[in-house]
Each structure stands twice: as C-alpha cells, then as structure tokens.
Amino acid sequence: MAFWRWGDAQAAHLVVCVHGLTRQGRDFDRLAQALVAQSPHPMQVICPDVVGRGRSDWLAEPTGYQIPQYAADMLAMLAQVKTQMGADQPIQTLDWVGTSMGGLIGMVLAGQPGLPLPAPIRHLVLNDVGPAIAWGSVQRMQTYVGQYGQYRDLDEAAAVLWDLSTGFGPVSADVWREMSAHMLRPGSDGAVTLHYDPAIGEPVRALTPEAASAGEAALWALYDQIQAKTLLIRGQESDLLTRENASAMTERGPRARLDTWPGFGHAPTLTGDDQIAVVAKFLLGD
C-alpha cells in the first residue's frame, strides 16, 4: 500500500487522511499542506492510497476489497511508520480524517480500543459518512463503481469525473483538473484511464439490503465505543448521510459535533480555504 507523506517524518503528531471509495490519497494535498503549515508544532500527515487505488497494488481476490481488509492494512501501515520512527521518537498524538469510505475505516479503528494502534485516535473527522448509509446511495454507487473506459486526455476524463462528482460541491476548475490528474494512469494508444482496479466494484454490486442492514448494526456498535473527539461534516444535499442519521450521531457514542455545509452533497473535497479552516481548527485545537 502506497502512501503520501507531508511534513516532518519524525513528528510525534500524526494525522492520517483517508479517501473515498474510488479516490486516492492525493485528494488531500491541499489539506495536508495547510495542516503542516498551520500547526504550531512539528506534524506529519500521511495520505494512503487504499489498496486497489492509485499507486497501491491490486488484490488478486476482489472479495478482499472491503472495510476489514482496509482497516488491517492501515494497522500495518501505522506499525511500519512507528518502526521507521524508532523507539526514541514515538507517535504521541494520532488524528484521523476520513472521507466517506475513509471515515468508515476510521470508525472501525477508533471503535475498537484493543487494536494495536501506535496511540489512541484523539480527534476523528468523519466527512459525510456515518454508521448508516442510505440504500439509495448504495444503489447509485452500484451503477458506476468499476464501470469506466478510456478517455482521450485529462480534460475529457476530468469532465466525465465531474459528472459523477457534482455532490462534491464548489471546486474551482484548476483544482478539479489537478485532482483529476492524480486519478489517471496511461491507457492504450496515448489515452488515459482511471487509476483504480475495476474489481473494487464487485463487493459493492454484491451488497444486498439485508447485508447492508447487518453491517449498519455492527458499525453503530463500533461508533458507540468511540472515545475520540469527533467532528461530523455533512453536505446538506448528501444522499449518503441523512439528516436523521447525522442527528443520531450527535446523541450517542462520541456525540459528534455536527457541521452541515449548504451547497454540498456527498462529499466535500476539503480543498477550499473555508473547508480547510474548519478541519484545521478542529485538529489543531485541544
């Protein structure tokens, strides 16, 4: 599993930023750079490409493209980072920012106190995701995840990606082009194609309402055990995180602080200055 690191590789304060279902770690370039620049103390920000995406390897068995595998991979990554830092430079503060799927992974890790994390997750940012996911949103994902072809160039690919991503809210054209460039790999005859394994869509398409309901119950049980101070960001037009479920998350478990953003759906990119400011204030505070 590849990851991108910003800041001081020996810093005791580590922030892990994990992307959504079909995205990759470079989505957090602007947030990571801002956090490192604004932090009053040395900080490192690590943004992994979840397996099957970006620069990470693809799995031989598509059924592995599920949250338990991703969470295990994150534990292995954190153990590697801890070893690289050495015993005399321990990770003292661990924060987590998770967009959509990245938030689910964060809940799994933060909701199990016995896991071998290098430090307990102190602050948890859940970007438009919770234990309950609207079934209509799952059905929408089932129609497009892994269903892609080749594009003439970056501009055509960026336009196609934007048609699938309008819920991300306001993103300037130059930022979107930059983000889209990291989503691509060379295709054939000079074309480009998306930088993720089409097989990640197989477990999504295999999901049934019954299985989703069982998974939701398990995630609520994990959420109720989270001790981390939690910020829940919800796009006001989100089709994945309903207003009712977001409200429930403020009343149980870590009693998340809810910040609802008008003009956004699923899920804010955390690239705009105003978006970054909300996350930075939360992570860099007490």
Give me the strand/helix succession: EEHEHEHEHEHHEEHHEHEH
Rg calc = 18 Å
Query: What are the low-pLDDT stretches, counting only 5+ consecutive residues below 50?
Result: none
Helix content bin: 25-40%
* Gross geometry: globular
Strand content: 15-25%
- The total count of helices amounts to 10
State the distance separating the first and last CA atoms: 31 Å
With strands numbered from the N-terminus, the spatial order across the biggest sheet is: 1-3-2-4-5-9-10
Structural class: alpha/beta
- The whole-number mean of residue pLDDT values reads 96
- Beta strands, count: 10
User: Main sheet, how many strands, which sense, barrel?
Assistant: 7 strands, mixed
The gist of it:
The chain has 286 residues and is of the alpha/beta class. It has helices at 29-38, 67-85, 101-110, 135-144, 154-164, 173-181, 201-206, 209-223, 243-249, 273-284, and strands at residues 3-7, 13-18, 43-48, 93-99, 121-127, 150-151, 184-186, 192-194, 229-235, 257-261.
Describe the protein's topology.
Layout: E1 3-7, E2 13-18, H1 29-38, E3 43-48, H2 67-85, E4 93-99, H3 101-110, E5 121-127, H4 135-144, E6 150-151, H5 154-164, H6 173-181, E7 184-186, E8 192-194, H7 201-206, H8 209-223, E9 229-235, H9 243-249, E10 257-261, H10 273-284
Parallel strand pairs: 2-3, 2-4, 4-5, 5-9, 9-10
Antiparallel strand pairs: 1-3, 6-8, 7-8
Helix pairs in contact: 1-10, 2-3, 5-6
Task: Give an overview in words.
Helix content is 38%, strand content 18%. It is α/β, with parallel strands linked by helices and 286 residues long. The strands form 2 sheets. Strands 1-3-2-4-5-9-10 form a 7-stranded mixed beta sheet, sandwiched between helices. α1 (29-38) crosses α10 (273-284), α2 crosses α3 and α5 (154-164) packs across α6. 41% of the residues are buried. The model has no long low-confidence stretch (mean pLDDT 96).
